[in-house]
């Protein structure tokens, strides 16, 4: 009989679908009309395969009260139109596109789901489980939001130097499985490098998750060695340029390909070439492009830079703790408007100027809720005079206590000075030589 068993020629056990039953006694509005591996003595269940293949003599054995339902199910199954396209010797991306078009009314499979199915080897490898294990390890260091697709892109880059979807889907099963330990190692090394060397505390701060790809590529090509001296500065410049130029917002795959060539240049001891000189990154650039939104790569890049400086709590100088629970939201209590928006609104300051990255500091949520609220800076800053090193604490936020407009509540002075400090620090990061 057809439809009962799927046989595998790759060593996996055969799969028997013969024991799937329709519950003839189920209510019409019940979703539980199919029961697996269950048979009763009241002739209220019938195998799907028998509905399709058996004749009247067999079906008449069931009680009369089920005959109409049997006929209805039988007609539904026999008249159902299945979309079938016979393909032979076509690339995986073509087969995937065909499947997606056929499955248009349903939910198309993601590249990750396709690779899970393609690389599955019972008892040997399960990509879904392997990826879950990796993400759980990254959770311990606040990098668990790394997407599964990014991990696949790292794999494709290590194997083919190319992270396009068709390249990922075309990776041979055995080669992919054999490469997995190297993929995991490169991802972990890249994450550690971002955390420890670039001092990015959590993955949600990354302007793009894909920024980990060129770093992982470096560690793979360099056999795990960290970049030193000029190589370090060049790799750091590449990383921060991606954020400042918002390079991965469009044409991600082609931009990553260019950046991999730049990593190759660094590995050879050369300075990569860039289309945009950033030595003119000015305070006006920060002013004009700094409207605060955590969804923008440019803003996340600045937040990364501010977080990397180890911002301290205003009241006692302790390090501000950042994690992925807060950082995804623009209204996160970790993000504090140094000049409160409510205060600036009363002063007639435009909303775009009030809600600007130059007005954002990263603080503990308890201070935001309990100590600052909508008070003028000149007033709430006095509450923290018990912090004997308050001026040094504010410098970790790129803010000067004196001559910065704080004492006079002069936002224009504060705004320009902080834009200038942000621009100076960003230039240090993006200019390698």
Draw up the topology in text:
Layout: E1 5-6, E2 15-16, E3 20-23, E4 34-36, E5 45-47, H1 48-53, H2 56-59, H3 67-79, H4 92-102, H5 111-119, H6 127-139, H7 148-160, H8 165-169, H9 173-196, H10 212-221, H11 229-244, H12 252-267, H13 283-289, H14 297-308, E6 335-337, H15 341-346, H16 351-354, E7 360-362, H17 365-372, H18 377-380, H19 390-395, H20 411-430
Antiparallel strand pairs: 1-2, 3-4, 3-5, 6-7
What does this structure look like?
This protein has 433 residues and is mainly alpha-helical. 48% of the residues lie in helices and 5% in strands. The chain has helices spanning 48-53, 56-59, 67-79, 92-102, 111-119, 127-139, 148-160, 165-169, 173-196, 212-221, 229-244, 252-267, 283-289, 297-308, 341-346, 351-354, 365-372, 377-380, 390-395, 411-430, and strands at residues 5-6, 15-16, 20-23, 34-36, 45-47, 335-337, 360-362. Strands 4-3-5 form a three-stranded antiparallel beta sheet. The protein starts with a strand and ends with a helix.
Offer a quick outline of the entry.
The protein is mostly helical and 433 residues long.
Low-confidence stretches: none
Structural class: mainly alpha
How many β strands by DSSP? 7
What's the end-to-end separation, in Å?
Answer: 73 Å
> Strand order across the biggest sheet?
4-3-5
Core attributes:
433 residues; 7 strands; 3-stranded antiparallel beta sheet; mainly alpha
């Amino acid at each position: 009989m057809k439809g009962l068993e799927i046989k595998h020629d790759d060593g996996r056990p055969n799969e028997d679908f013969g024991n799937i039953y329709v519950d003839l006694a189920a209510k019409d509005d019940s979703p539980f009309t199919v029961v697996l591996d269950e048979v009763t003595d009241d002739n209220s269940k019938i195998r799907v395969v028998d509905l399709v293949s058996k004749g009247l003599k067999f079906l008449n054995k069931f009680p009369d009260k089920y005959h109409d339902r049997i006929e209805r199910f039988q007609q539904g199954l026999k008249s159902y139109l299945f979309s079938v396209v016979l393909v032979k010797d076509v690339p995986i991306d073509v087969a995937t596109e065909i499947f997606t078009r056929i499955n248009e009314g349903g939910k198309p499979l993601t590249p990750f789901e396709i690779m899970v199915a393609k690389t599955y080897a019972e008892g040997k490898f399960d990509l879904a489980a392997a990826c879950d294990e990796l993400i759980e390890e990254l959770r311990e260091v606040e990098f668990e939001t790394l997407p599964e697709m990014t991990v696949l892109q790292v794999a494709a880059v290590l194997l083919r130097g190319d992270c396009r979807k068709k390249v990922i889907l075309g990776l041979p099963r055995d080669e992919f499985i054999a490469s997995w330990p190297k993929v995991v190692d490169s991802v972990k090394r890249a994450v550690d490098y971002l955390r420890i060397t670039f001092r990015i505390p959590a993955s949600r701060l990354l302007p793009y998750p894909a920024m980990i790809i060129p770093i992982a590529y470096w560690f793979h090509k360099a056999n795990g060695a960290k970049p030193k001296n000029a190589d370090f500065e060049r790799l750091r410049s590449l990383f921060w340029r991606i954020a400042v130029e918002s390079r991965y917002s469009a044409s991600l795959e082609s931009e990553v390909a260019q950046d991999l060539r730049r990593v190759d240049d660094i590995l050879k001891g050369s300075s990569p070439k860039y289309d945009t000189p950033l030595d003119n990154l000015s305070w006006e650039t920060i002013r004009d492009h700094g409207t605060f939104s955590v969804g923008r790569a440019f803003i996340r890049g600045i937040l990364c830079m501010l977080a990397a400086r180890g911002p301290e709590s205003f009241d006692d100088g302790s390090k501000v703790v950042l994690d992925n629970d807060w950082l995804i939201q623009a209204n996160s209590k970790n993000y504090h408007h140094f000049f409160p928006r409510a205060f600036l609104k009363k002063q007639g300051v435009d909303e775009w100027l009030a809600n600007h990255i130059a007005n954002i500091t990263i603080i503990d949520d308890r201070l935001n809720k309990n100590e600052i609220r909508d008070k003028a800076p000149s007033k709430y800053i006095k509450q923290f005079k018990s912090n004997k090193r308050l001026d040094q604490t504010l410098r970790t936020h790129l803010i000067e206590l004196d001559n910065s407009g704080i004492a006079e509540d002069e936002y224009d002075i504060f705004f320009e000075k902080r834009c200038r400090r942000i621009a100076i620090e960003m230039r240090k990061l993006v200019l390698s030589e």
